[in-house]
Amino acid sequence: MQLLRAAGQLKNVSVKVVDYNHKISFINQLNTTSKADIFIGMHGAGLTHLLFLPPWAAVFELYNCDDVACYSDLARLKGVKYFTWNPEKVHLISADSEGRHPGNGEKHKKFANYNFDIPEFTRILKEMITYVRRNPEFQHSRRILKRHLRSKQKEL
């Protein structure tokens, strides 16, 4: 919730929390993802939704669980910008407890609850916002949207 509050305090930013689960149809998941400019998540299968982001989007993998290349490679192949913690700043991430796989009980970082340094999270998020807003494809999409909204207003 701390990350959500921090993101929500930024000017001109709207935040939406989405839990991609079996109750949400895949079509609805794709529709939601395709409208996101910034996509934030923990290492795991949900990050594969980055494949459906618009071309100007940025993805923030909060913690890669020592699988450094997985989602950075996927983001590169998709053509979206990938962000994560700088290796020198990983000490700003801490686990509440030792993570354990829910099926076999073995230790695994992916299943721990983490705490993140809010100022560093906010700094990275602001960098992402700047990246998206400066992206020519994002700017073009906004011009088209504005034209569309103006034409709708004229119709009224």
Automatic annotation (TrEMBL):
UniProt entry tagged with the keyword Cell cycle: no
Keywords on record: Endoplasmic reticulum, Glycoprotein, Glycosyltransferase, Signal, Transferase
InterPro entries xref list: Glyco_transf_61_cat (IPR049625), Glycosyltransferase_61 (IPR007657)
Pfam families in the record: Glyco_transf_61
GO CC terms, sorted: endoplasmic reticulum lumen
Swiss-Prot/TrEMBL catalytic activity: L-seryl-[protein] + UDP-N-acetyl-alpha-D-glucosamine = 3-O-(N-acetyl-beta-D-glucosaminyl)-L-seryl-[protein] + UDP + H(+); L-threonyl-[protein] + UDP-N-acetyl-alpha-D-glucosamine = 3-O-(N-acetyl-beta-D-glucosaminyl)-L-threonyl-[protein] + UDP + H(+)
Gene Ontology molecular function: any one: protein O-acetylglucosaminyltransferase activity
Top class in the EC scheme: transferase
EC assignment: 2.4.1.255
This protein's record includes keyword Heme: no
Domain of life of the source: Eukaryota
Protein name as catalogued: EGF domain-specific O-linked N-acetylglucosamine transferase
Species whose genome carries this gene: Caenorhabditis angaria
